[in-house]
UniProtKB/TrEMBL annotation:
Domain of life: Bacteria
Bias (Polar residues) ranges: 1-10
Region of interest (Disordered), residue spans: 1-22, 64-86
Biased composition (Low complexity): 64-73
Organism this protein belongs to: Streptacidiphilus monticola
Protein name per its UniProtKB record: Uncharacterized protein
Basic residues: compositionally biased ranges: 77-86
Length: 86
């Protein structure tokens, strides 16, 4: 099972127990890069809110290839309601 997480401090990461060569063809085109500890990460995501589009793209691509992926709920920043005009 692969676990996809996002935190502001670490960015978007994927814990992956599978060999790199099995998941690289799916992850690299989306922009993922391997880390020496066996995890994968999306560069440039630390310090940023989660990107629901790339997370959905990643989970869909991995599931199409038969992998089981878990993801925590992604919170997107709430949009402010427009100010009423007077």
């Amino acid at each position: 099972m692969l676990t996809l997480t996002h935190s502001t401090a670490a960015g978007t990461e994927l814990e992956c127990p599978h060999p790199r060569d099995q998941v690289a063809p799916v992850l690299r085109p989306i922009g993922w890069r391997p880390r020496p500890d066996g995890r994968w990460r999306l560069p440039g995501t630390a310090g940023q809110p989660a990107d629901p589009r790339r997370i959905a793209l990643t989970t869909a691509a991995l599931r199409r290839r038969g992998f089981t992926v878990t993801t925590p709920p992604v919170r997107t920043p709430a949009r402010r309601a427009p100010r009423p005009r007077h």
